[in-house]
Amino acid sequence: MKIALLTPTFSHFSGIDRVVELNAKELLRKGHRVSVFCFEGDINVPKLKVIKLGISKNQTIGRIYRLLFFLDRRKIRTYGSILRNYDVVISHFYPMNLLAAYAKRKYGIRFVYHNHGVAPPWTFHSFPEKAYMWMFAKLSNWSIKDCDEAVSISKYLQGVLKRETCITSKVVYDPIDTTRFHPGIDGQHIRKKYHIPKDALLLFYNGRVSPHKGVHLLLDAFAMVRKKQPNAWLIISGRHTFPAYSKKLKEQAAQFGKHASFTGFTPDEELPHYYAACDVFVTCSLWEGFNMNIAEAQACGKPVVAFDVGPHREIVKRGKLVAKGGLTDFAEAVLAAGRNPGLVRNSITSPPSRSPPPPFRERWTITRSHRQGGSPIGECRSSVSTDVSRARRGGERASRRRQDK
Fold first, then answer.
1. Residue 88 and residue 79: Cα distance in Å, rounded?
2. Cα 263 vs. chain centroid, distance in angstroms?
3. Where are the alpha helices (DSSP H) in 72-154?
């Protein structure tokens, strides 16, 4: 089959794009012809065709353009028409859904939406940021209203999608590349790079440096940790996407001197070594759709301390969850994890707001998906494998319709 994967950026700094990369590799191994459509990207995969639509290098202009992409009818028509030659289109994020919707409406191409979620406005600080995210979420939901099938990366997002759009989706967790992320990796050169003693408590965060990721709260919690453990260190890794926010973070971190470091984006080949170097993976993220970084850290054998938000009860198998905003409990959990790496699995200090879901490795039996029957799926199995097998007949019907035209 000929399959198109749609994502705004195709870069390693984005968790969504790393999922797209893994899905593309899997489909290529199965003999499918695969193309990725994106505005920009730097991921290279042998035999994978990458079609770049182009976008301004100015971060602010690019962000506004993505929000209002529905106004660029010429580009939607141009690239949406190219999709007529594909059997199935899998869109991972707005505004790429607009291309998939155009191809479905115009040529009858099967449109599968891969739901990674959109961070809610309340997780951002300024009014412009809140207004932008409110409009982004509304447009995202509008753009998928005619999808043939939907996939959610967690039960949490499955519920959000159903509540906001009435679309029923199946759950497929993001795949983790266990050939790269596993116990036994040597991380000593990372400690040497930042002059961190072998016996020091090293905390590591990796992810987008954005207000909804709660990095400012992580720095507050780190200050509490250092009051009881002065030989604690913190490495914050990830792309900075909000300049004003990043400036405040660096001012906030100045009190720690060399004990707190911002690395910027960590190259993909180095990331497993950072996980290996740390004692505890930490995140004060206020919202997540899945949290691939937690899954990767655990795959490397590291305990996790995080807020009890979104899908974290589904994902955290080795670590501790604390109530959102509970920084004192967070700091205590970090110190406990540092003393005892074999922390009790799925330990939760916050009051249960819902029944805990089945363990992460349990196989799920999914309810009927939007306009398509569901089927059992397993942990970390790529959604595209099940989407494609069921889409084959739909793609063949679409091809016959195109030929009849």
1. 15
2. 20
3. 73-82, 97-107, 127-143
For residue 174, give the H/E element and its range. Answer: none
The helix (run of H) or strand (run of E) holding residue 85 is none
Domains by residue range for the chain, with CATH: 2-173+362-404 (3.40.50.2000), 188-348 (3.40.50.2000)
Q: In the numeric block, which tokens belong to residue 233? A: 């260190």
What does the alpha-carbon distance between residue 91 and residue 81 come to, in Å, rounded to a whole number?
15
Neighbours of 319 (CB within 10 A): 25
CB 212, CB 123: distance < 8 Å: yes
Q: Mean pLDDT, consecutive 10-residue segments, the chain of 405 residues?
A: 97 91 95 97 95 94 97 97 97 98 97 97 93 97 98 98 97 93 96 95 96 97 97 95 93 97 93 97 97 96 97 95 97 92 58 39 32 34 50 52 49
User: Residue 87 and residue 395: Cα distance in Å, rounded?
Assistant: 4
CA nearest neighbour of 116 among 167, 165, 158, 178: 158
| Inter-CA distances, 5 with 92, 250, 338, 348, Å | 8, 37, 41, 37
Instruction: Please state, in angstroms and rounded to a whole number, the distance separating the CA atoms of residues 184 and 301.
Output: 8
Cβ density class 122-157: b for 16+ within 10 Å, e for less = ebbeeeebbebbeebbebbbebbeebbbbbbbbbbb
CA-angle at 167, arms to 371 and 93, nearest 5°: 105
Contact 107, 130 (CB under 8 A): no
Question: For residue 383, what are the CA distances in angstroms to 7, 115, 120, 303?
Answer: 15, 11, 25, 27
Q: Which of 199, 269, 198, 280 is closest to 235 using CA atoms?
A: 280
